[in-house]
Amino acid sequence: MNRKKMQFAAKFVTIVTIACMTVQPLCAQKKKTSGKKENTKTESTVKPEVKVLKMVAQHTGPVIGADHADVTASNNKSGFETGQVVKINGVYHMFVNEMFNRPHRDMRISYWTSPDAATWNRQSTIVESVPGRIASNPRAEVWCTGVVFNEEEDAWNIFYVAYRAGDSTKGEIPGNDYAGRIWRAKSIIKGRDGIAGPYADMDVIMEPDSTSQEWEGQQAVACFNPYKVGNTWFSPYDGHNHTPRGPWPTGLAYAPSLKGPWKRMPEPFNPLPLAEVFTENEIVTRLKDGRYLMIFDSFGDQEIGYSLSKDGIHWEHETRVKVQTADNVWADAGDHAMRTPLCAIEEEDGSFTVIYTARTQRYNKNFYAIGKCTLAWQ
Q1: Does residue 26 fall inside a structural domain?
Q2: Residue 10 lies in a domain
Q3: Phi, psi (5° rounding) for residue 69?
Q4: Sorting pLDDT into bands at 50, 70 and 90, what band is 359?
Q5: Contact 297, 323 (CB under 8 A)
Q6: What is the mean pLDDT of the chain?
Q7: Among 292, 298, 238, which Cα is nearest to 264's?
Q8: In total, how many domains does the chain have?
Q9: Closest by alpha carbon to 250, among 331, 171, 309?
Q10: How far is it, in rounded angstroms, from Cα 31 to Cα 346?
């Protein structure tokens, strides 16, 4: 067997092994609860109706805009971008990145709460970036992308990306993000009630290294949002090449625990077949019916993208959904004006609460506000 075939075989074995590790406990559980023989007869040849997510309700205008009292009090000049919202005991908790001065340049991670996902109050600043956008500053920007309760530590974990600026002496673009490193921070207050923090940095769990894949480009590692399948943790992560400019693909990483060690799924499994050009800032939710829902920033006017998976490993091509309609369009038009969804929280009635960021105008300047809508299967 030649070297190429051996490499492909090794990668194939890796994927199969991970799938078996993940699915085996679930299969054993199913067998345990069923003492009847399986009925191998086909009960119906009629294919079930395929439902898609559609917007069924929307908040009029932003839920947090430029004139919100806490935006003014915290001197947030440019708005919000990327983060995650989780719901605990009827309260919505939002970890979101604030662009307090220049958009996508001057960053900090903040913490907000709401009783209804519409009325929000700012509670605190969780993580500050290190001032000075230069190539030698690896924390020139910080972007929270994941919030997970860590059962092993009995504490909340947040995951955020830290970037350096491009180095012009090496042909890089100074205004762009390079060499993303994924930080894991832990609440110092134990238990689920400790979600407000404060948070302490634990470690860098993923960064550019000898196992980086060609498609990741110069920006990776970008985005990190862990979710569990069986006994294995997975997370989507993004990449992008600035020079020459390439697409924005997404891959999967896996680990035995949130602390790691995190490893990339091998090529050609990575990158995932989500979209032809652009997906970014993915958030994964386990649905009540057992499937997995991934939402993300995509192309399209006032649209976000989503993908479904039966096993949490293999993902469908994206479907896009409108989050604003003609009588309530407050976000700018354009592929990169509708920014990032922060959640798709499955409510008791089966609908989904979606919080998102989008670019709008205030006094002829860009401001990235936060909106809200409700999606449902139709």
Answers
A1: no
A2: no
A3: -60, -40
A4: very high
A5: no
A6: 90
A7: 238
A8: 1
A9: 309
A10: 28
pLDDT tens per residue, range 11-68: 544 554 555 455 444 333 333 434 444 444 444 455 567 899 999 999 999 999 999 9
Pairing verdict, β 352-362 and 338-341: antiparallel
Give the dihedral sign, CA 181/299/303/376: negative
| Amino acid residing at 163 | Y
Long-range contacts, 209-212 (Cβ 8 Å, 24+): 211/263, 211/264, 212/264
Residue 121 exposure: Cα atoms within 13 Å on the Cβ side: 6
The DSSP letter of residue 363 is T
Q: Which residues is 143 bridged to in the sheet?
A: 161
How distant, in Å, are the alpha carbons of 13, 21, 31, 86 from that of 16?
5, 9, 21, 32
H-helix or E-strand spanning residue 69: helix 69-73
Stretch among 149-163, 278-292, 309-323, 330-344 having the lowest mean pLDDT = 330-344
Domain that holds residue 141: 48-377
- How far is Cα 62 from Cα 339, in angstroms, rounded to an integer? 13
Share of the chain above pLDDT 90, in %: 81
CB count, 10 Å around CB of 36?
A: 5
- Here the tokens at position 321 are 């959904």
Of the candidates 342, 338, 336, 300, the residue with the CA atom closest to the CA atom of residue 318: 300
pTM, to two decimals? 0.89
* Within a domain: 324: yes
For residue 130, is it within any domain? yes
List the CATH number of the domain containing 355: 2.115.10.20
Cβ atoms < 10 Å from Cβ of 79? 27
DSSP state at residue 277 = S
Please answer whether residues 111 and 94 qualify as being in contact, where contact means their C-beta atoms are separated by less than 8 angstroms: yes
The reply to whether omega before 244 is within 30° of 0 (cis) is yes
According to the model, what pLDDT value does residue 36 have? 42
DSSP code per residue over 154-209: TEEEEEEEEEEE--GGGT--TTSEEEEEEEEEEESS-SGGGGG--EEEEEEEE-S-
